[in-house]
Automatic annotation (TrEMBL):
Protein name per UniProt: Arsenite efflux ATP-binding protein ArsA
Pfam family, one: ArsA_ATPase
Annotated Gene3D superfamilies: P-loop containing nucleotide triphosphate hydrolases (3.40.50.300)
Domain of life: Bacteria
Source organism of the structure: Micromonospora halophytica
Organism classification: Bacteria, Bacillati, Actinomycetota, Actinomycetes, Micromonosporales
Stored InterPro entries: ArsA/GET3_ATPase-like, ATPase_ArsA/GET3, P-loop_NTPase
GO molecular function, one term: ATP binding
Domain ArsA/GET3 Anion-transporting ATPase-like, chain residue ranges per copy: 20-176
Keyword field: ATP-binding, Nucleotide-binding
Amino acid sequence: MRAADPPTEPAGTGWPSRLHVVTGKGGTGKTSVAAALALALAAGGRRTLLVEVEGRQGIAQLFGTDPLPYEERHLTDAPGGGEVRALAVDAEEALLEYLDMFYKLGAAGRALRKLGAIDFATTIAPGLRDVLLTGKVKEATTRTSGQRRTYDAVVLDAPPTGRIGRFLNVTAETARLAKVGPIKTQSEGVAALLRSPMTAVHVVTLLEEMPVQETVDAIAELTQLGFGVGRVIVNGTRPPVPAGREVTQAELKRGLLAAGLPADRATVAGLAEEARDQQVRRELEDSLRADLVELGLPMTELPLLPDGVDRAGLETLAELLGRAD
């Protein structure tokens, strides 16, 4: 890091890397967590970049903005004078940029797009797409403006756990296959960044069986491939229920009557069954939480937001993430 660089960590000490890759099984809220993390890392006058690479425009939908172009744009302000910018990386635009940067084929590249050659290239070589996407993320992460980094942190809303290993490892495979030239050089640079201490892969999960199993599998794969796993982020958690004996139907009936609510047999029986179901559910959650703890990684729990993930909800999640240590 240059001496002129400002601190790159938020108030907590749990996010020391510069590039934060956020993955998770579909439906776990990884885009919301990535956005909240970008807000947390921008607090205190920092600038972060929030990047998506799947073409879903999830960031725009989350913040209620127009679809993001292939251009870094102001997304929102952060507490303390910080700024979050956003970028939706498009593989075709990234290829045009690559051709212009390394081969000076700006006009020729645009002509190739009209002929459909770029789409053809990324179709017959699917790995090329991921090389281009990760290459753009690497460029933004390492870019400098004057005597300091352009961004204090970059947060990547990455592909889901089912393909995160392949997505991150494609540059290493490309570097191994390419013999010489810019493709080999760029691939080696990206592969080195992704496996360096500058990068951490965070896995988002819910306390449900399938997401937890995919989390365990993804962490094992990432570790085997040599990527640094940062945190397990457990999203959508509920307050713990105090341990104690089961409430009887008689007690439920007395409580309903005291509150002036209907206390007929069907209502009491229904509440008792719901209470038993909740107890079973909480016991399962406790068991899954224990499985995650056994991974030996830092773990952060985020609450279920009753009103959904609006701006206030994002700020709540950002505050909790910023406290991580």
